[in-house]
Structure formats: C-alpha cells, structure tokens
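Researcher: Please translate sequence to structure tokens.
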Amino acid sequence: RHADEMLARVDDLRAARDELLRRAPAMGFVVVDSDANFALVGRWADRHLAWQQLLDQGVLVRETGPAGYLRVSAGTPEEMEAFYAALARVDAPRMGE
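Model: Translation complete:
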C-alpha cells in the first residue's frame, strides 16, 4: 500500500548511512563499513564518556558493539547534522592518544 513511500525512506537512510561512512572518517574517526542502517563509529578509549558527551548534547546513540565504538543509526538530514555537530565537540580520548 505504501511501498513507494517505504522505498523512498530506505533510499534516504542508505544515503545518510553512506554519508556517515564518508564524513566521520573525514573528521578523524574510525568507521566500520556497513550495509545496515547504522555504522560503528569510534575508537574511543572510554566510549561511555563519548556516549555521555553526545547525550549531553541531545544526541542519542547506542553504547554497544566492539570496545571503543558507538553504534550510530542513520537518520533524517536534520538528525545527522545534529550528530555531526555534536561529534565535533566530543573530546573523550581516543585509543592511541
């Protein structure tokens, strides 16, 4: 019934995920390649601190997956811009620092 709308949304999420796979590494973060609607972004020495710093800015991501990484779901353009802005302000130490 709503197949066209659903497929358009899937395309939007794929585009957001693909941009995440390009943009976060350009900001200096490690991103695990993904075909899902999310990607793992990191590598923090204390991912809980990074998670908390994002949450304090109103950005909710999942603190799950391999140590040092956060699971970031693809979202609307507005949500993703808020994520990138918040991510730029995260100062939690990264692995190797």
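Researcher: Any highlights?
Model: Strands lie at 30-32, 38-42, 69-73.
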